[in-house]
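Changelog note: in this version the structure field was regenerated for every chain. One regenerated record is shown below for reference.
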Amino acid sequence: MKLDLTDAALEDLREIREYTLRNWGERQENLYLEAMWARFAEILNDPSRFRPREDLFPGCKVAAQEKHIILFRVESDVLQIIRVLHSAMDINRHSTE
């Protein structure tokens, strides 16, 4: 299966990186993003084990990673990461594809 990140997901990761670097330093920024990419690999390995959220958009599933919620879907042989949102955000408002 192939991994694809939307432009919105890439921007989310940039913002997470900048915030973590600014507030917690380079070491924590590296640890947090490494954990995020490890979670992406877990999802890629078995996306069926994660909770569906069809109310957000068709095919949507969610996975938690520490303080963030990963919104994704699988189409054909592609795992598409749609958004990576902080758990305090209004997921319904920010879940647009």
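Spot check on this record: The chain has a mean pLDDT of 94. Residues 3 and 40 are 8 Å apart (CA to CA).
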